[in-house]
Design a protein that fits this description.
By secondary structure, the chain is an alpha/beta fold. The chain has a single domain, classed as Aldehyde Dehydrogenase, Chain A, domain 1 (3-Layer(aba) Sandwich), CATH 3.40.605. About 50% of the residues lie in helices and about 15% in strands. The strands form two sheets. The chain has a five-stranded parallel beta sheet, sandwiched between helices. Strands 1-2 form a two-stranded antiparallel sheet. Helix 1 packs antiparallel against helix 3, helix 2 packs across helix 3 and helix 3 packs parallel to helix 5.
């Protein structure tokens, strides 16, 4: 699977580098997210570079184990990477391509079976990207993709009990999920993006 996923990454990176493909995704992002063309294209570029970084044997190198010598002759500790197995990924609206692709591929590279839920307002972007990944050789059964509201997804998580969930979104939902899933969750919750405005700024309402 390391070789297969390295090959999928190679093909997907090549496809995203094609002007007609990158333009398609940039304009698709614009249809569902309030971004300029350059901002949307930048998201496609970052995603393409990520896939490019994991071509060939790079997926295999992610699973590199380690050994640390101990205090005494012949004493060593060894570390090995093992997949969680069934995992869930929940991503927000503001990066409809970049965040889900990077998190999804990371889960796949390490041997997990991900259930992916993207914000329903922008999920068409990832739906199209999954079709591209299937075209590049990713087995259709490797990813479960669900479109639903938050309540349905919450119920699904409680019933499915994934070994780990990666959530990117609001602090309020993050706190609920942390309690519901009894800590089997990694959070990238909301923060503050501070802006300092100088005395020469006249369009304060626009910046707010």
């Amino acid at each position: 699977r390391y070789l297969m996923l390295g090959d999928v990454s190679t093909k997907a990176a090549i496809k995203l580098s094609l002007p007609e493909v990158s333009d398609f995704f940039a304009r698709l992002i614009q249809r569902v997210s309030p971004k300029s063309y350059q901002q949307a294209l930048g998201e496609v570029f970052v995603t393409q570079k990520f896939l490019e970084n994991f071509c060939g044997d790079q997926v295999r190198f992610l699973s590199r184990s380690f050994a640390v010598p101990g205090n005494h002759l012949g004493q060593q500790s060894h570390g090995f990477r093992w997949p969680y197995g069934p995992v869930a990924i929940i991503t927000p609206f503001n990066f409809p391509l970049e965040i889900p692709v990077l998190q999804l591929m990371g889960a796949l590279y390490m041997g997990n079976k991900p259930l992916l839920k993207v914000d329903s307002k922008v999920c068409i972007v990832m739906e199209q990207m999954l079709r591209l990944l299937h075209e590049c050789g990713l087995p259709a059964e490797d990813v479960d993709f669900v479109n639903s509201d938050g309540k349905v997804m919450n119920k699904l998580l409680l019933e499915a009990q994934p070994r780990m969930t990666l959530f990117t979104g609001s602090s309020r939902v993050a706190e609920k999920l942390a309690a519901d899933l009894r800590g089997r969750i990694k959070l990238e919750d909301a923060g503050f993006d501070w802006k300092i405005l100088g005395p020469d700024v006249h369009e304060v309402v626009h910046f707010a």
